[in-house]
Design brief:
With 431 residues, this protein is α/β, with parallel strands linked by helices. The protein has helices at 12-26, 55-58, 64-73, 90-119, 227-233, 270-276, 300-311, 366-374, 390-397, 415-419; strands at residues 2-3, 51-52, 131-142, 145-152, 168-176, 181-185, 190-195, 202-206, 215-221, 240-251, 259-265, 285-292, 315-321, 383-387, 427-430. It is globular and about 115 Å long.
């Protein structure tokens, strides 16, 4: 490689440059220095002698003494390079290591101040942001129904407040990140404590212990045409899902009625079961009419819990199976009774033991169930809830109307309840 430098020099500058060139020429014998040839055709006025400098010579490393001297004199100077052109000096390596460590610390700080701050919050749910839950149990108990247990990820159970207190009917929003949509599901205050080795059925328990407050169950129906339900039921154990809530559907009044009626279809019965299964919750006596397409739409374990609620005089269930030709009619309903405040008769807990005994629906004492149905209720219902698909809600109580700023249901009461003189003042449609 040849480099010709032709600066315009005059006077003393020319002499200084020639003396410098002669000194450089004296060092040509040093193998560690660059080689300088005498100028071609003699020196020219204002010219610097032609410098022959090979790139390989420039890349040759200095001696150890020179490296130490240069590092002392120029601690922030340029790095020495080897034949491959990559950094070789210790100071260069130190700077690289320092940069990597600094980047790692910065990344760790960013992660802990963003993700971990949310995951370590004492709130099991947040109404203003999504928090992570993990699928800890999943069972397909019917051809299109799933039982899914969700557990809060990375939370402190000693500081977390219970989600279920019996003060309201509420749901959670689950986010589908791929298409950025959310759907509401009603959680049940139950968790899975292992499975039966013979039947492989889950052993359900009520949420009574602090360490289990971050867990609950979902009943999910899979629709072949529903993209969200397909995505949710395809989640595997240990998969993470994002939840937000609680979303209050109905807050119980401070003064409760003695008796209410509940008309639900399919998973629309879950808001009622959420209240009945909450330990220590004070709820009115419930006349429940549950419409199902087939008997397997609900897990067997829930039928048994409902039977226990009947034994405790908490509720009275009647199941209407459509594939068996059973259908809700106006004759099965009663007219609304005058309001009567809730007394102390129906405040007994659902079960004294937190464990839900293993059982099968077909071995339940059916005679005692029908005996409960034949019992005379203490009073007729003065308030009614309706929950289910839109067609069912319209059939029972008329079409709801939320087309207003307050999202208040102003739809006229129709259907079966209108035939029994029910009005908007004593009906709540859970949509």
């Amino acid at each position: 490689m040849f480099i010709r430098v032709r600066p315009v020099l005059r006077g003393r500058q020319v002499s200084a440059v020639r003396r410098l060139a002669s000194k450089v020429g004296d060092n040509t014998a040093d193998p560690q220095r660059g080689k300088i040839d005498p100028p071609l055709n003699g020196p020219l006025s204002g010219d610097v002698p032609l410098i022959r400098l090979k790139l390989a010579d420039v890349r040759k490393p200095h001696t150890v003494r020179e490296q130490e001297t240069n590092s002392e004199q120029e601690p922030h100077g340029a790095e020495e390079t080897g034949d491959g052109g990559s950094p070789k000096s210790r100071s260069g390596k130190s700077r690289v290591v320092f940069a990597v460590v600094a980047a790692g610390l910065a990344g760790a700080y960013y992660y802990t101040t963003t993700n971990t701050a949310t995951e370590n919050t004492t709130d099991l749910l947040r109404p203003d942001q999504f928090v992570p839950f993990v699928v800890t149990y999943k069972q397909k108990y019917d051809e299109d129904h799933y039982l899914i247990e969700l557990t809060r990820k990375q939370y402190n159970p000693a500081l977390a407040s219970p989600l279920f207190d019996g003060a309201a009917m509420w749901s959670v929003e689950i986010k589908q990140p791929d298409i950025n949509i959310v759907r509401n599901y009603t959680p049940l205050p139950l968790y899975v404590d292992g499975t039966d080795p013979e039947t492989n059925r889950p052993r359900l328990r009520l949420l009574t212990r602090t360490e289990n407050h971050g867990r609950f169950l979902l009943l999910v129906k899979r629709y072949n045409t529903g993209e969200f339900s397909r995505w949710l039921t395809n989640r595997k154990v240990f998969d993470e899902v994002q939840l937000r809530g609680p979303c209050v559907e109905y807050k119980l009044p401070q003064t409760l009625p003695e008796t209410v009626a509940f008309y639900g279809a399919g998973t629309g019965v879950l808001p009622l079961l959420q209240l009945l299964y909450t330990p220590g919750a004070v709820v009115p006596f419930v006349h429940a009419f549950v419409s199902l397409h087939k008997h397997t739409d609900l897990p067997k374990e829930l039928f048994y819990l409902n039977w226990l609620a009947e034994q405790r005089q908490k509720a009275k269930f009647r199941y209407l199976i459509s594939e068996a030709g059973e259908r809700l009619t106006a004759k099965q309903m009663a007219q609304p009774a005058p309001f009567q405040p809730l007394g102390s008769a129906s405040t007994a807990p659902l079960v004294e033991n937190e464990a839900v005994p293993d059982t099968k629906v077909d071995i339940l004492p059916k005679k005692s169930i029908w005996d409960i149905f034949k019992r005379t209720p203490r009073v007729h219902a003065s308030f009614a809830f309706v929950c289910g698909p839109e067609t069912y809600t319209t059939f029972v109580s008329g079409r709801p109307n939320l087309n207003n700023l307050g999202q208040i249901d102003t739809g006229a009461i129709g259907g079966l309840l209108a035939q029994n003189q029910w009005t908007l003042a004593n009906i709540k449609r859970l949509l």
